[in-house]
Amino acid sequence: MKINIAYPQTGLQKLIEIDDEKKLQNLYERRMAQEIDGGILGDEWKGYVMRISGGNDKQGFPMMQGVLTNTRVRLLLSKGSCHYRPRRKGERKRASVRGCIVSHDLSVLNLVITKKGDAEVAGVTDGDAPRRLGPKRANKIRSLFNLTKDDDVRKYVIARTFTNKAGKETKKSPNIQRLVTPLTLQRKRARNSAKKASVVQSAKDAADYKKVVAKRMAEQKEARRSAISKRRSSRKSKKEASA
């Protein structure tokens, strides 16, 4: 079985292969998120405490937290489930996953060091693997450098140096996202003023419409009244003529 050991503080990880069944016996029937003593893997890991973070079986199916079995099962996965990303709204899919209990069927077991031991381990604790890219969002840059709102974030962008195809060293820095500039504030004021103008115009149009409706209603009422008076006068004249 292969054991992948990661150390988050340095960003390094190491893959070792253990064929000794006596060492692997100490890992069997353990569950994900449980901590183990690193000394069971060898003398170089004495004093280390590791957490089981997952693993894959020989066919590539991953372990899933909360599935209390050491075999492979088929579960109906929906949005929010591990190892599944729905393509459509409300979509669910039945997929094969492995339980969270370690067994001999695993091909790779992932461990994360939570406590460092006394001795350094080559390739895990003795080096450093810095992040390739720095933060891009303005507030995350502020939190990284403890900046205030008055400080200029653009001066603290982490640029990456690399060699281009022509063989020259160049720098590339990310475009800061969610950066508040005078132009963005101007656009915000323009949007707010447009909303206010729209509200005023809508109220004016509604008032004009009510005036037109009231005028039309008055005209129709007057037309009905005149028509009724004409009919009454004509009936009266007919009665007088017959008399």
UniProtKB/TrEMBL annotation:
Keyword Secreted part of the UniProt annotation = no
Region: Disordered, residue numbers: 186-243
One CC-aspect GO term:
ribonucleoprotein complex
* InterPro entries found in the cross-reference section: Ribosomal_eS6, Ribosomal_eS6-like, Ribosomal_eS6_CS
Q: Name one GO molecular function term.
A: structural constituent of ribosome
GO BP annotation list: translation
Give start-end positions of Basic and acidic residues composition bias. Answer: 205-225
- The protein here is known as 40S ribosomal protein S6
Q: Which organism is it from?
A: Triparma verrucosa
